Amino acid sequence: MSGTSELKIYNSLTSRKELFKPLQKNNVGIYVCGPTVYNKVHLGNCRTFISFDLIVRYLRHLGYNVRYVRNITDVGHLEDDSDDGEDRIAKKARLENIEPMEVVKKYSDDFHKTLRKFKVLPPNIEPTATGHIIEQIELIKKLIDSGFAYEVNGSVYFDIKKYCESYEYGILSNRKLEELLKNTRDLSGQSEKKEPFDFALWKKASKNHIMKWNSPWGQGFPGWHIECTAMSLKYLGNQFDIHGGGIDLKFPHHECEIAQGTALNSVPPVKTWMHTNMLTLNGKKMAKSTGNNILPEELFSGTNKNISEAFSPVVTRFFMMQAHYRNQLDISQDALNASKKGYQRLIKGYKFIDNLSSNYIGKSIFDVNEAISKFYYAMNDDFNTPVLIKELFEALKRIKGLSINKDFINKDDLKKLQNTFRVFLFDILGFEVVEDKNDTDEYLNKTVSLLIELRENARKNNDFKKADEIRENLLSIGIILKDNKNGTRFELK
Amino acid sequence: MSGTSELKIYNSLTSRKELFKPLQKNNVGIYVCGPTVYNKVHLGNCRTFISFDLIVRYLRHLGYNVRYVRNITDVGHLEDDSDDGEDRIAKKARLENIEPMEVVKKYSDDFHKTLRKFKVLPPNIEPTATGHIIEQIELIKKLIDSGFAYEVNGSVYFDIKKYCESYEYGILSNRKLEELLKNTRDLSGQSEKKEPFDFALWKKASKNHIMKWNSPWGQGFPGWHIECTAMSLKYLGNQFDIHGGGIDLKFPHHECEIAQGTALNSVPPVKTWMHTNMLTLNGKKMAKSTGNNILPEELFSGTNKNISEAFSPVVTRFFMMQAHYRNQLDISQDALNASKKGYQRLIKGYKFIDNLSSNYIGKSIFDVNEAISKFYYAMNDDFNTPVLIKELFEALKRIKGLSINKDFINKDDLKKLQNTFRVFLFDILGFEVVEDKNDTDEYLNKTVSLLIELRENARKNNDFKKADEIRENLLSIGIILKDNKNGTRFELK
Hints:
Rossmann fold; homodimer
């Protein structure tokens, strides 16, 4: 079904598009770094999860059996490795004066709710960092045993110099060790690490630290990077197909994952690294501190000063799909308005095609297979959704033009076309035909008002028979008219 | 606001209603045993979670700061302690040929989705068993150190005889040790346990066992009972206010929790034990094997042979609230139909009250405070929702009767009454006014049909001006009439 082209994916590790070949025929393992649940999910993060939702949906459509693992970071990673670096979740708990796991529950629920609105399908496994402390400890023990990690005062660090004796560090972000050394602030004497670029695998917990566990090195908590290594290797094996995440995670997080995985199993953990690009707002980086920021719920309700009109989740999703996941994308009221119109046009076009009928059995004027292969070509080119959407509109335009001629398409081709549109729009792109309840309510209000007006006019013309008829007809369908001094209102029975 | 009565709760431990006094003024800690996520959630389980949702909502309404912990059992507890007892989640994973954690994700999502439909609010913390392996190991170590548990061949068991030297075992389910001994099948020789009633804290994993963790006793997995002890004590302290669950968990699960908690901290872990009663279907116990079973989703869609009509989640919730949580409840089509009518009547009554207005400032004929105190009296009597609902209907009936007299209630009393109804119906009982989209769609279809008919009649009477007016008015509100040989249909713009 994928036409004549084959799927190519841009691999951040090699900086080029590569033909996608899963390690195990038909099975694809994919891991995406999930949210740290200490706050309401960021719209930029949503872009990442929506992008990988599209990617997983397309891989499944191609017939792959996909195991999609997306974690929840519920022991909040440190701002940095220094001793006063505070756990983000614990900090939030302290500020809100609740248990850290209450913070986790609150924001995990919020995260799931938001993604559901965006029509993001759940992953197959959603492991939590706190649910894999033992696994992390096991890996750290193994790293110490093989000399890639060392313990100091109850904390354990990854030894990058030692790693560089056997492997290369920095291959994903193209960093050289010498550069790293130059760029790292000199904290010698203050730090217990051998080298400033070594990173924490396990941190000793202070007496007041809330989230801590027993370990061979005393009470402490895991470093951020080892979490994802423990969870991805556990559920996908020592080497798996795709690892994804936001571009901001490339360094140090993903670089450290490569080092950990390679040191553990002498094999790079991931074949294809995929990174989604940033979402900016009105041309600038989003940041709470500057106020140039918007929450998903504020976008849906139109209650944020930066974008004061409400846009539905599906329009927002369409807006995101209009850009390629590797390109930076700027969100603004104007851009969303354009997307809203575009989305309505697309759905209208889909309905137009879906309502076409044909009994014609001759040759079609419209070349369905050509159109379909263009759709696949776009998607197979590193999931190029903007090109796909362009091709969908092209096809719609041509069909609309040709449809003046009744026999432009034969029965079978039409069926194929209708099915393809349905699959691409709903199964792959994750769109939906929205006729929301509020709209229907409004339509109902307006039509009943029209009937009330007609009754009013009949009365004025002394046509009381007609007026009563309208009232009774409405009553018979369960709508009760109530007259009072201010006019007539209605109630549903 | 709770009237003159005080909250009394039936304590399963003492078999009587007791005045509720939290251990810490204003703070209430409550733990409820959650589902084992290896299957779609059972309607009987839903009753338990809906009951505790009501209980937590009411405690919060009374002003308590409630920390509600409800766990997810994601390492499926064994059928029994024997060596071939298979983990339920692993078994399901083997049958479905997927990773156990995929089973967990699938059915956790299903569980949450179902409870959302029932308007069950999320707990504050929803810990998982696999997320607390370290905590469980710590407790088991402590039990071994204090002599309450013993290790045999990589498994650890709780020593009930040893426990009985200091404490009494069986206080919740009123079982005597001698009876237990008599009633337990004699597996001596086959079992590695000292006594047949000893229960597993940690089980050695066979080579093929999937879900296992390293421990001081080798690779294994925790027993079911220690999970809940680890999670409840971690988040609520060594002794907390309320522990709830289905009545089927009283023995052995809750009995074992008492023994574990008491042995660990020399204090009973729970002040008040609360148990919800069974839900039967058409007079018989629900069981998959007999076919006398129904899933929540089947109930909502009317696709189960036992109850073939569809009932909404809120009607089902109302149905459940019409029985006291400690009474057995039988679900059937007739009973649900009666509840559906009752619910409609209640909501209609609420709307009636909500639409009343008053400018009267004299003495009310209707004694609002008396009515309100009856509501509280019912709820304070061990959360007696059937009595509460009866009192709500009583009040509605009286108000309806009195309302013939315009000045039956003064302004302030009316406001208080309206507010109380809102609070009890929506905040406490968790009901909602449902006007679902399908209904609105149908109303809209019918009203537009009426307008089409009026237009048709105008045409027949050669009143083309009127006919066009109707068409144009509809168009102006976004409804397009399309005439064809079969008549006229409409489309939304």
